[in-house]
Design goal:
The chain is α+β, with helices and mostly antiparallel strands. It is built from six helices and five strands, in the order H-H-E-H-E-H-E-E-H-E-H. Strands 3-4-5 form a three-stranded antiparallel β-sheet. Strands 1-2 form a two-stranded antiparallel ribbon. The longest helix is centred in the first third of the chain and has 19 residues. This is HNH nuclease domain-containing protein.
């Protein structure tokens, strides 16, 4: 005589469903935390800056006006805690007062042109603008043309 199969409790079924959903998500589409989130060199809400730097705001939706970053780096980039510095064709990661051990490891890291696989890399003019704004935020406590926090 065989015993009937044991039923899972509601808590166990919920946990099984969560695991199955996580597995499905990993298979179907890569996570934004692993691949990255689109991050703009200059916010799309500032078309005036694009017009000032490039003479028009048509390029603000091109891939060269941003990059893919993991969520934590994206937020730190938007908060002007770090920026890229260009020397020749190579970009260097520059953290201003790195707080985390991960940030300390990334500080000074060189990003060669070969690292940008699908396009020519970030627009040097936009990257330089972001770097200048980050420096100004370190000196003044806020960036030019931005609201104080």
């Amino acid at each position: 005589m065989t015993l009937p199969p044991r039923r899972a409790s509601p808590r166990q079924r919920q946990r099984q469903n969560q695991k199955a959903q996580a597995k499905y998500r990993r298979k179907r589409r890569p996570s934004c935390d692993r691949l990255g989130q689109p991050c703009d060199s200059i916010s799309k809400s500032r078309p005036d800056v694009y017009e000032e730097l490039q003479g028009h705001s048509n390029d603000m939706f091109y891939s060269s006006s941003g990059m893919l970053l993991v969520k934590t780096l994206h937020h730190a980039y938007d908060a002007l805690k770090w920026s890229l510095y260009r020397k020749g064709d190579t970009y260097y990661v520059h953290f201003f007062n790195p707080e985390d051990i991960t940030y300390k490891r990334l500080n000074g890291k060189a990003i060669p042109p070969s690292r940008f696989r699908y396009h020519e890399g970030p627009d040097p003019v936009l990257v330089a603008w972001h770097y200048r704004q980050t420096i100004r935020a370190r000196i003044r406590g806020f960036s030019v043309g931005m609201k104080r926090r």
